[in-house]
Write a structure and sequence with these properties.
- With 123 residues, the chain is mainly beta.
- The chain has one domain: Rieske [2Fe-2S] iron-sulphur domain (Rieske Iron-sulfur Protein, 3-layer Sandwich).
- The protein is 3% helix and 33% strand.
- The strands form 2 sheets. A 6-stranded antiparallel sheet has the order 1-9-8-4-3-2. A 3-stranded antiparallel sheet has the order 5-6-7, with no helix packed on it.
Length: 123
């Protein structure tokens, strides 16, 4: 994914409305991206975004589970690293794409198509 894939940022509203440890879905219709996007308010307090479709089966990752720094697929339990999108457990072998998430004051902003810098998350 290159920065030429980047789409306009999306204001997702106040970050406080998203409970820690939860996943929510931003539809492809709303983002303009070619897949829904799973946005995670992780247990570390950061926000992360990944393509919503598991790379092993066509299953929505936003229906999965946040486990420390991973998002676990609800079908076969592949766990994807929130920072890199790389699967840390089988059966998935291919990573899912990441998207940058930032804060604008108290508001959460999703940048569809802009890769998340490694090790960076919105507070």
């Amino acid at each position: 994914m290159s920065t030429s894939d980047a789409l306009p940022p999306i204001d997702l509203g106040p970050a406080a409305q998203y409970p820690e440890g939860e996943v929510f879905r931003v539809s492809a219709d709303d983002s303009g991206w070619n897949d829904d996007i799973a946005v995670v308010h992780a247990e570390d307090g950061g926000f992360y975004a990944l393509d919503d479709t598991c790379s092993h089966e066509a299953v929505s990752l936003s229906d999965g589970y946040v486990e420390e720094d991973t998002l676990e697929c609800p079908m076969h339990a592949s766990a994807f690293c929130l920072r890199t999108g790389v699967p840390e457990t089988l059966p998935a072998l291919r990573p899912v794409k990441t998207h940058r998430v930032t804060m604008d004051g108290d508001r959460l902003v999703l940048h569809p198509g802009t890769p998340r810098p490694d090790g960076d998350s919105a507070p």
